[in-house]
Amino acid sequence: MKKAFVISGLALALSACSASFKDVDHAWCPPEEAQVEHVNIAADALFQFDKSAPSDLLEKGKRSLDELIARVTGDYVQIERIDLVGHTDRLGSEAYNQRLGLARAETVRAYLQSRGITVPITASSAGESQPVTTDCVGEKATPALTACLQPDRRVTVSITGIRKGNKTQK
Question: What is the mean pLDDT of the segment spanning 75-80?
Answer without folding.
Answer: 91
